Each structure stands twice: as structure tokens, then as C-alpha cells.
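Sat 14:20. Reprocessing the chain from the morning session after the first attempt stalled halfway. Input below, unchanged.
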Amino acid sequence: MRFTTSSSKWALVRSDLRRFWPLLFGYAVLWLCAMPVALWSHRDYARTLDHVRVLCDIVNSYFSNGGIVAAAIVPACFTVLLAMALFSYLMNSRSVGLMHSLPITRGAQFGVHFAVGVGMFTAVHVVTALISLPVQAALGAVDLQGTLEWLAVAEVSGLLFFSLSTLCAMVTGWLLAIPVIYAGVNFLFAAFYLLYSAITQIFCWGYEASGWPGWLDWLTPTVRLLWQVTDSKAVLYGLNDRGFRCYVDRLSSGAWTTLAVYLAVAVLLAAVAYCFYRARHSETAGDAIVFPWLRPVVLYVIALAGGMGLGILLWYMISAAKGLAALLVYQIISGLIVYFGVQMLLHKSFRVFTRRGWIGAAALAVALVVIGLAVRFDALGVSRYVPDADQVESVSFGSYYQMRYVDNLTDEEAIAQVIALHEAVLAQGEPTENEMNQAAEEMRGSSADVDQETIEFCYQMKNGGFIRRRFTQIIRRDTPLYEQMNRVYNMPVVRKALVNNYFSVNPDITVENITGGWFNNYKLGGDSVELTGAQARQLFTAVQRYLDSKIQTSADVLDFSESNVAESCFMLQFNYTAAPDTDNSSGNSATRAELGDSNGGQSWVIDCMPSDCTELMDLLISFGLADTRADLMYD
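Finished this time. C-alpha cells:
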């Protein structure tokens, strides 16, 4: 009988669907319950709202908050199970022998299995979106753009992670190794970065392991997708029935760029998986890693990660010494245990203590020592790294003791001055233990010329990265560090940010739109007293003058009198009305319909005013809300 290549691949498609329909059914039930059914459960609440609020507060909120986050995460979990099912025959020598003896080329077999997988999750996503549209219409508003954005995120996430899990299935002959390799590849670079950062934080002054560079973001697709889809932008949709603007969340340009890049990566991974499938030998079914050239890579990656991670854990648990030698010993011991354990799995034998095995173990030990020494002596210069001003999008800084924290400065001059302060901290150098003790003695002697501060710098980079540094430093009067700190803290933009942050100043409220307010004395107790519009406006004007005076007041970082001022014991609430044509959105992705108090307005509360707000306290006394200033201060 003449051999021919079959063109009927539909039999293979029907076989896959017949065997793995429970996976498809479970995935469909999950999404249908999570999206259209859950939306329909809000129908009673939707009847009480107008069209604009139904779309903003129910439909778009559901898609943009929970739905789109699930669209980035759920496919990542489902597709690895799908790849395990569709390519499970590769893990058994009899099954793979049978499949590869069929009159269908290997390339065609791979294409059929991959297409079935893509078709399964795509069908679920499309059906879920289509069913959601009439449900939204029944609620009273249809968010077509939000639904399509959800579909795009779900599809790209599914394609990316299915391609990756398929590639993982191509390199192993163990079924249960697929999810392990899949999770390892997803977080490989993040794991090594965090291990390196943990060691660096131990030995390098000022370094904080909480930073996250932009390049690492791209190499950890699960994290980047999640961050990008949740970092949405608020877009004006319309006015609700009370005249206030309502906003919907839309994917940002960065999210669309991420989806486009990962779509291209998914195609590339699928192509690589196809090549691996064709190069894979049927006889390797049952091997931990089917390609000989890949086994040393897997061996040393796992051994390095295990040695570094377990070594740090043992160092924290056992060693009382804070030295590098103890850490290296623990890491080498842990690394050798992991190394020979992985060797046994790869070779399926306990006979791994050979000459070749010990040479590899020695190379691993040398690599761990080199990494430890490079970190200890800061070979990469990470602890002394200061970003360029043109690379920084925003900066936050402050101390944990006397100087207050300043959040998210975007002014270019302010960013440059904060970077100069960072450089001044590094230029002064790490204080020794004797210097810290001497400064502490001077402080106990009530010296006004020295202080110890823990100063923190947080940089949000334009490339999406985040850098954090925290230094314990001595500040002495008339030193370059002292001069630069005063220069920074006396910049008008910094003084304004300090005041606004400390008193939670609301930028939307003005004297003209204040309608009234409330007063309450915490110390005396009792019910709140309602303020008339005229009283509230006079009090707000006094508050404004006080805050302006604080902004204009010069600061001395070694003058702690301001931080020791007593606080008042009263609360003021100012009610105001925002004009319907005023954009009250903060631009935050969580912004919803602008709803205020029971009168349809907004409110701003301020309390714990310092004791030097004398004009404000005198006004309260003149309104009969207190007899003396002492009544308005804590004892």
C-alpha cells in the first residue's frame, strides 16, 4: 500500500475536542458566571440609577476593575492546563509513538493541537463578550468599548501564555514538569533580581530591594500585564442626573503598547515551540529535559537560584554574624545540595558524584563566590547610582523623623534639587558607628547643630521603573548636606507640597463655592454644630491665610520647634458645590461619578491644626463655638 500524507486533519480536531471538552466547559462556566451573570445580579440597583451612572458605576466599573484584571490573570492559569492536556501524549513513549506513526506530518499535528487550544479559549472569550452586551442593554447602558478592551486583554493574555506553556511542554518529557517550568520562566528574571537585591540590601548602604527596573517589568509578563491594565485613564463620559461629571476607565496608551508587544512575542514563542516540536525525538518521552544542550542551562539556573535563596534563608535563621563569609558558606552548601539533587533528576540515577559532577559543583561554588564579592564591593555601582533628572518622571523624598515626607514632585527644578540632595548624602559618605554614637551624645546634650536622619528617595522613572534608596545620615550645621537640605525644603514648590500633603488640601474648593459646614470639638464632645455659609467662608479664608503663611515661612532642617507645636482639638468641615462644568476628576483610575454629601455637594475636612492658627481660633470664639483658645487645644 502506497504511503500518503493525510489531508484530513479534522479527525484530530474532533479527537481533541472530544477528549478535552471538560476543560472548555469549565472555562466557559467560569467566565459566564464572572461576567454576564454577575452583571445581571446588579439589575435591582441599576433601576435606581440614570443611564450615565449605570454605565459608569456598574458596567464600566465591573469591566475595568474586576473583569479586566481577571482577563490578564485567568488565561495564564487556564492555558497551562490546556497545553498539558493537548500535548500530554508527548510524555508517554507509547502514545507519542502512535501519534507520530499517523499519516499526518509532525508540523501539521502541532498546528492542529495549537489551533484547537487557541480556538477553545477564543470561543469562550467571544461568547462571553457577546452575551454580556444584551445583559448590559437590559441594565440600561452598553459599554461597547469597555467590552472590546476586556476581549483584547483576554485574547492577548491567552495567546501569550498558551504559546509560553506550549513551549514549556516541548522541552520536557514529564507532564507535571510543565507547570513548574512555566512558572519558573514567568518569574525567572524577577527571582534572580530579587535575590541579587536582597544580598545587595544586606551589604550596600542605602540600597533598598523594593525597586523594580523597567526592563524587568517587560521580562515578567504576568506582572506587567496586571500593572498596565489596572493603570487605566479616566475619560469623561457625561453628566449624571445631578449635574456632576462621570468618568469611565479606559486602557492607557502604555497598556495598548504592552498588548501589541506581547502579541508579537506570542507569535515568536509559538514559532519557537513549533521548531522544538519538530526537533524533539520521540524516544525522549519520560526525560526531565528532552534536549541535551538545555540540561546544563536548567541545572545551573536552578542551582544558582536555589543556592542564593536557601543560603540567604539559612543566613537569617542560623548565623548571628553579619558577614559575607557566613553567607557564602551557606550559599555554597545550599547550592551543592540543589546541584546534585537536580543532577539525579536529570540523569535518573544516584550516581552523579563523578569527576565531571564535582567539576560542575566547583564551577557553581566559584560562581556563587564571584556574585557575593561583586555585591559586597558594589562592582555594578548600584548603591551609588543616582538617576539623571531627564530620566525621572516624579520623585518622593523625606525622612522618618523630623522632616516631613513630600510625594510625587514633578517640577523639573525640584527633581534636579532632590537629585542634588541625594548626591550630597552620598558625598558625605556612610557614617561609622563611632560617628553615629558621637552624634547621639551631642543630641542628648540638646545640641541644635546636629541630627540623625533616615532619608528616603523614591524615583518613578519615565521607562516605568522604580528606584528607592534609604540612607541613615548625620546632618551637621554648615555642611554641604545641611545647606542642600535647606535649599530643597525652602523651594516654594516643596513648601506648598508639604503643606498640601500635611493638611490634605482640596484644590477644588474656593471661597465662592462654599455653602456651609460643620464644627466639632473633640475634647468637649457633644454633637457637631452646623455653620452658616458666611461663617464657613470666613473660617475658610482664615485657614487659607494660615496655610499661605506656612508656605512662605522659611525652614531650617535643624530647627525642630515646628514639629513640636501642640495641635488643636477641633474639626472643621467645609461643604461646597462644584459647578457641573468643572472637571473634578483627579485623573485616578478609581474616579467614579462625583457624588458628595446628602445635599448634592462636596466637602473638605481639616483638623489637628497647630496651636499657632490664632486667627482661626479667634473666629471660632467670636462665633460662640468656644470661650477661650484653651478650649480649642488639647491639654
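Strands lie at 233-239, 245-250, 392-399, 406-409, 450-461, 466-476, 514-521, 529-531, 570-576, 602-607.
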